[in-house]
Structures are given as C-alpha cells and as structure tokens.
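yo

u said u wanted the structure for the complex thing, so here. seqs first:
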Amino acid sequence: MSYTLSIKNHWAEQQLFFRRIIWSGLFVVILTSVVAGRLTQLQIFEYEYFSAQSQGNRIRLQPVPPTRGLVFDRNGKVLAENLPTYQLELIPEQVPGVDDALAALVALELIDPANIDALNERIKSSRRFESVPVRLRLSDEEVARFAVKRLNFPGIEIRARLIRNYPHGGAVAHALGYMGGINAADKESLNRANYAGTSHIGKISIERAYEAELHGAVGTQEVLVNARGRIMQVLDGEPSTPGQDLFLTLDIDAQLAAIAAMEDWRGAVVAIEPSTGEVLVFVSTPTFDPNTISVGLSRSQFRALQGNPDQPLFNRALRGSYPPGSTIKPILALAAIQDTNFDPERRIMCRGYFTLPGKSHRYRDWKRQGHGMVNMQDAIAESCDTYFYSLAVDMGIDRMQMILEQFGLGSATGIDVSGEKSGLVPSRAWKRRAFSDPGDRVWFPGETVITGIGQGYLLTTPLQLAQAVATISKQGRRFRPHLLRAIHNPATGATRAISHQEMDPVPDTNTEHWNRIIAGMLGVMSEPRGTARAVAKGAPFLMAGKSGTAQVFSVAQDAEYDSEAITERMRDHALFVAFAPIEDPQIAVAVIVENGESGSGVAAPVARQVMEAYLRNL
Amino acid sequence: MPPRGNRLLYHLHLDGPLLLGIFAILGVGLLALYSAVGQNGAMLTSQGMRILAAIAALLIMAQVEPGLLRRAAPWVYLAGLVLLALVLVGGDVGKGAQRWLDIGVRFQPSEILKLALPMVMAWYLHERPLPPSAGTILVTMILVLITAGMIGLQPDLGTAIMIGLSGAAVIFLAGIGIGYILSATALALGSMPVLWYFMRDYQKQRVLTLLDPDRDPLGTGYHIIQSKIAIGSGGIFGKGWLNGSQGQLEFLPERSTDFIFAVIGEEFGLMGGTAILLIYLFIVGRGLFIAAMAQDTFSRILAGTISITFFFYVFVNSAMVTGLLPVVGVPLPLVSAGGTSMVTLMAGFGILMSIKTHRKLLAR
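structre next:
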C-alpha cells in the first residue's frame, strides 16, 4: 500500500525535495555571508581598534627598581649593603589552593604559623598575577628543602632578590635606621613614578634622611607578557640609575666600643669631632636588629619590641631628655668668670649644704661632710655642689639661661637626621608660659639654686651635651653635628664632601677663661680628689671630663614592674662628658647611663673606652 | 565504468570532491591547532590519532548500504536513548555537566543521537507520503523534543540546540508547508521567555554577555572580548602562522577547542577566514548535491540533514567566536581538538558517500 503511494508521488516528492535543497543552499550561502561580513567588519573596519587592544594586551611597561646606595663609615667600612638573598614568592592565580600550600610550607618549617594570617591578608590584597613574597632570606639549607619538594608547589617559586643588610646589626641601628614597606603616609610624599618598582623605603635616621640620595632613579623595561602576566621576553628598556653611596662620619670601631661598654645598660653615647661637628659615635642602648625589622616583623614580634620596658626602639641619643646634672658646672663656671667682680681663685667654705639667706631649707652637697675650702677649679674637679649653689644664686637664672643657650642647650642642634628633641632651658619667661596656676608662674630663688647643679627643669639630650663639651674643647667655636661626611656617585665616580657648618660661637674669646674651666675638667681626671681620676689611670692621652648624676623624678606609669625593678629604675642617671687629647682635642664624648647612679664610676669608663678606640686609629 | 583515476575511490565507495574538501579542512585545522597548542607536538599527535579514527569511521560507514542503515535506524536510535538515560543516572561529571559514559572508552552518547535522530526521522518519513500530514509532523516533532530534552537535561544546551536544529532540518526537507514554518518560527520567538526561565544561570550569563561583553570583562565576557581582539587584530592578511600574539601568549581561552576559529582569524586574517568558510561552503554544497541526487526519501532526507547540520556547526561556531551568537559549547567541525564529535562528523560523511556511491550501484 505504502509502496504504491510512494511510486505514485515519486516525481512530485523529488521536485519538492529539489526546491527544499535549493532553499537550503540559499540559506547556507546567506548565513555564510553574514559570518564573512562580520569578519570584514572586525578585520577591516575595526582593525585599528582591535590591533591597539592586542598590543595593550601583550606589551607592558614595567618599572625596574634601582639598586639602593651603600653606606660606609668614615673609614670606608660597610655599614649597609644589598645582599642577594633567596625568597619564596607565590603567584596567587597559579596556586590551586593557597591555604593548603601555606599549610604545607608550615609543615616544611619554611614559614612561621604565626604569620599565616598576615600572609593571607597580603595575598588577598595583591593582584592575582603578581608575585607575593611569603618568606624572605632563605638559608641554603631551606632552599634545598624547598627545591626537593618544588613540584608539590605549583605557583610558588624561589626568587633571588636584593635585600638590605646591615653587617653590624643593632650596633648602628639608631644612627642608620632601617628599611620598611612603603605605607600610605609614605606614598603621599613620594614621587610615585620613581618608586613604581620599589617596595621598601628608609624609615628612620640616615636611611630616611638621605632616602632621595640612596634610592636612585627607576628604570623601565618593555616586556612581552602572556595572559598570566608572566614575562616571556624583554623587548626594550632604560636601565635604572643606582642610588648614591653615603660615607658617614661614624667610626665603626669607636661605635662598637661604645656598644660593648654599654652592653648591660640603658643609655646613650654620642661622640663628636670638635673641629668639624662630625658625629663619630651615635649609640642608644638597648638597640634592635635592623635586619629583622627590614624583613618585616610579625605582629607579635613587633608588639614585643614596642612593649619592651627598656624601649629598644627609642633613640635616646637624639630624643632622650635628661637633666644634665653636674656636667654643666664648667659652663656655669665660664659664665661666672666673665664677670669682672668674680675671683675664681677665691676659696669658699663647703660644709656639705647650702641655705638661702633667711631660709632654713638645706640644699645638700653630694658629699655629706663637705669639701672644705674650695676654689673654682677644685669645685669643678670635686664637683662641689655647695660652691655652685652659691654661684647660681650670685649669678641669677637670667645669666644662667643665657650661657646655657649660648652652648646650644634648649634648642635642637640641627643634626641631619629628623626627630631630634630640643631639651629645655628654664627661664622666667618659660615659667610664665608653661604653667597655668598663677602661684607657679613666678620663678623661685630655690629653683635657681638647683639649676646651679643641673637639676630642676633643665633637660638636655646626649647629643646636645656632646656638642656642648666639644664647644668647650674648641674654646667656644661650635659646629653643627652631622652624620653624613661625603656622597659618592657610583655612576660618575664623583665624590662630594659635605662641608662643615660653623654655628654662632659662644661669645667669649678670652683664652684664659676657657683654660680655667678646662683645667678644672682636667682636675676631674687627674687631681687626688678628682671625681674620675680612677678612670684616667693609664690612659695614653690627657682627658678633660666632668661627671654628673641626675635624679630620676618620676617612674613611668607602667605598674607591672616588680619592686626590685622599680627601685632599680628609681636610681640616679649617671652622666659623663669629656674630650681628649686635651692639647689638641680630637673627640668629645657625652655618655648617659640610665639608673647608672655614678657618673664617674659607670659613665666615665664608657667614655674612656670610646675615646681610646677612636684615638688608637688616628 | 568510472574513470581510471577514481577506480580506488569507486571501490571504496568514496566521493572524490567531498573527500578533497574534508582533507583540505583537516589540513588547515592541523596547522591552526599546532599554533593554538603552542607548538606542542604531543597534542598534535593525539589529534592526528583522532583524525585517523574518524577516517576509519568514514570508511566503515561508506560501506554500509543505505537500505541496511534504514532498517537499523530505529534500533540505533533506541540504543542511543538508553545510553543517554544511563548518563543521566550515573555518568561522569565533566565541567559541571554529565555527558560522559565510561564503557571501556569514554564517550558522549549524545554523539550517537546526532546521527540516530535524523536516521530515525528519515526512516519514519520514508514510508509516508510527502509533504507530511499534520500527524506525521507531530510524531517527528515529539522525537526531536524527547531527544533534545534529554540532552538538555545533562545539561548540554549546545548539543541540544544542534540536535533540535537537525530535527528541524529533517522536517523542512520533508516538505513541510510554508505556513507551518512561519508559525513555528513565530512560536520559537514567542517561547524565548519560557526558555529563559528554564535556563541555568551560567547559560543566562552567556546570553547576557553576548549582548554586552564588557559587563563582566574578566568573567564570562572575557572569551568574547579576547576572541574579537584576536580576530580584529588579524586584519586582512593576518599576523602570520604561529605569530598571533593573542593565541601564542594565551590571552585567548579555549583556543585549541571552541575558539580555534579566532586563532585562524588572527594568524591568517580575513583571507584565511574567508577561505576556510569557502571550503566549508564547498563541502556543504557537495553534500546538498548528493542529497539532491539520492533516489529514495530516506537517503535524500538523511543526506540533506547531515549536510545542513554540518553547516549549522560551522555557522554557530563562527558566529559565536565572532560575537554574533552567545557562547555555546559548539566546536568548529573537523578543526577543533576533541574526540567524539570528530568521529561522528566523519561517520556522517561516510553515510553521505555511501548514499552517493550505492545510488550508482543501484542504477546499474
């Protein structure tokens, strides 16, 4: 049945099918033309646009960070260098499971589990195709440990990078500073284009003050990248200009001697070359390791450093404000000598205390039984407080303020690193400004008395004291202290020396005046009753010095210390200032030992060791 | 007797012009693939092995007499449906969809149905007067809906659409009235919102992305943007073989599979792209010619559908890569790297050749 139907319609069906095939063919040609038209549109009419897009896709301009300048001491010994180190870097998009990978690295003891959170945060905040350092400074052994398991860690690689290294570690940390990641505040003041490839920046002291010189200029390279951002080929570029090398005024041998002498103490040592203002030693203890800080501390490490009651991050040499104690006695004596009515040879009786006329309050001498009959030179050498109480009352606070300020106390020295404190020289005007209670806004005679032995409101920094004693050694000539001695440009080979800057001198050109107070300071070191005679024994040079102790007025409010620690921190600060050799001063030193109690017993030996270490090399 | 040069082809039941077109495409495809896989010899070898397997399938199918094929059609179709059901119950999941069945070799049962559906429809129409009655059309449409629906459930929207289109081609070639065609078109347009409702999220994303690739340039829009950059930056003459930066530097995703046409466009330009379209046009034209020359309804409809479906693949893929259609996972036939679809396509060409050559035997 169906067969006959089929036969019957065979020709008609074939005709129908032919027509449908022709329609289909037409349809096929039309649709093919649509695609061909689309190709024409994209490849001819929009060619320019897509060609540009394709270029942008594959050619990228990359910054080439410059090599940071090196830092040397005054004798060319390296203080800061750049070491090639191996680090582990992770490219997030190439790592199948970041959490698992980090856990596996912890298992290999390559990263600290305490850092996992910080690492995760860093990985999340960086771009997917950018390399994130997850561990810096791998040892050879650690490199090997990772290399063996390398295939288990797709997207994690060992890369060689330059890292700042300080071969002397903490010994120069407060003078040099350290490197840290560029933060939001840094970014505002930076030329961002020049820092495009730079991840770290100098944070404090020299590294920060001379950031512009040390950094250098960024270079560029045109690179061919693939879709994952990986560089396939470097096409073209402009090399970076390395940063300039710095020669500091520091003498690393003297610096290390100071660090060794201060090992068990909190305090500061500053030494200056009197004829130039060059800072030879710049020590604050306890110190910290700039190498670990530059790598980036974990949060707990940083908190431990910040919360340390000994405050290792605090730059005592620059920012520590201490009462100068008896170390200013020679300066006050100089002011007294300038008064024509004053006779430095006149002896006065020291009974061990001083009273103001008509008052009963006794201002005690450090020597209970008194010094007996002393003239000015004896009073400096033996550090007789009674003599200077009397001197201060005769002179008055206005005259004392004047001479102290002429020596630079109470104002910043202007050293070439930032953050310096200016200390305080009290005066009538200052009291009026600083206090709100009318009863406190007048200057009391008793305050004049204690200022005479460097107590009371008077505050100085170790740097100021070093400059003041240098000024004494140069008989009034003053130079601005500075840490930079010369800048060397490795590209041109040119070295530019930093010129010394002379400051307003102390206006006293009478050599005899100066010789008298210097004789008193020599007496400290040499006379039978000189406070620091023991320290000068056997020294191959003649020193002039002055010891001091400063009362600790208040203890920090951290109440966690045990009673023993509190009493330890209640002890007086020990101070010592000195210069040597006396006939041709090469070095002036100020030493402060917190809670060291005895200026002559604790601080003076430090000064001697520093001087010896420096003068030995001259 | 055929000309002497064609004697071998004659005995192997092969069609010279069609074979020439196929080999031309395969050749161009291997060149493009070598570039797309980053000159990876191993990848090229495995594609070569697949081509050899596909040629074997072509040779085998060419020997099968169309009558035998017609009688086997309903059984092949049923077997395909069963395998498809097995996949839905417990197939391997690949890229979020269950398409694979592992029976010694991993393969997608939907590939069988690409041929089995036109076969069973042609078998059904073979015995009915044409143009088909309304009842006949209904039956064929049910067959199409069942097959496309089951594949769509995997979910494999691309293949479901292609199967649906091949079913539509069968009905069109059977001589369905122009009124039906117009109303079906209207119905299809009207059902789009319904289709939208049933689409998975990633499928909706693809459609939205087509309309505006920049709405998600690093996600779903990335493919289209990078593909258009590749083709557009090729210009008239292309960047040269192995010199296409989009492909070589891996900006172009899926460049060895679904987006290989963009590699061709980038490296060979408008000239190369048009040339390959012309070769495809030649193959489709030869297929339609074979269909027109076929002597019975089954052969005619099957040959025509295979040719038109093949063209659909070419069109949908090239339109998708150039940003005219949404990204549906349809490979460029005979060029994209990949296993089963190559074998299916070549088996289809084998059927075409069988229809062509056995017709002559029959006439003698």
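Chain A touches chain B through 40 residues (CB under 8 Å). The first helix of chain A runs from residue 2 to 45.
cya
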